[in-house]
Amino acid sequence: MLAVYFFIGLVVIQRIIEMIIANRNAKWVKSQGGYEAGKDHYKYIVLLHSLFFISLLIEISITNKGFVLWSIIPLIAFLLAQVGRVWALSSLGRFWNTRIMILPGAKVVAKGPYKYLRHPNYAVVVTELACLPLIFQAYWTALIFTLLNAFILSVRIRVEEKALDEATNYTKAFKNHRRFIPKYEE
């Protein structure tokens, strides 16, 4: 069980480091004349992700289930999502954030995974919230937080796309991109 808590602890540490990076990037965007959009719903995203880890730890502790052979499937999906996360974050560079930070007149990043999808980082988050609990057979956490995340992302994506459309070349740059699934072109 200690290995389970250690693994989850590593993911939490990763999130804390990302928050530090996001705050640094937000300061940079603001120093360049940018602003934050969607402030009203951001607190719910933070709450959702915090409660996700609490729920995951509680469910794992109560059910006392750990890693089983088929856990390798969601583990591989989760690890691949981490590769996608690094790719998405490094592609955005200083523009990556957990908040919706808008720099008017900036050209949107359309390289890396953004060459294929409008929201690869959100696809990563969806994968993580579904797969991390499944690694440890925390089915309720997987189900509840996947649904809650789908709801909050439906709000966030609308706000983000509207803000980007109003202040950048977003619509033109991503007119042929789908949100989460790459478009197959012949």
From TrEMBL:
<dbReference type="Pfam" id="PF04140">
    <property type="entry name" value="ICMT"/>
</dbReference>
<dbReference type="GO" id="GO:0016020">
    <property type="term" value="C:membrane"/>
</dbReference>
<keyword id="KW-0472">Membrane</keyword>
<dbReference type="InterPro" id="IPR052527">
    <property type="entry name" value="Metal_cation-efflux_comp"/>
</dbReference>
<keyword id="KW-0808">Transferase</keyword>
<keyword id="KW-0812">Transmembrane</keyword>
<feature type="transmembrane region" description="Helical">
    <location>
        <begin position="44"/>
        <end position="62"/>
    </location>
</feature>
<keyword id="KW-1133">Transmembrane helix</keyword>
<feature type="transmembrane region" description="Helical">
    <location>
        <begin position="6"/>
        <end position="23"/>
    </location>
</feature>
<dbReference type="GO" id="GO:0004671">
    <property type="term" value="F:protein C-terminal S-isoprenylcysteine carboxyl O-methyltransferase activity"/>
</dbReference>
<dbReference type="InterPro" id="IPR007269">
    <property type="entry name" value="ICMT_MeTrfase"/>
</dbReference>
<feature type="transmembrane region" description="Helical">
    <location>
        <begin position="68"/>
        <end position="88"/>
    </location>
</feature>
<dbReference type="GO" id="GO:0032259">
    <property type="term" value="P:methylation"/>
</dbReference>
<keyword id="KW-0489">Methyltransferase</keyword>
<protein>
    <submittedName>
        <fullName>Isoprenylcysteine carboxyl methyltransferase (ICMT) family protein</fullName>
    </submittedName>
</protein>
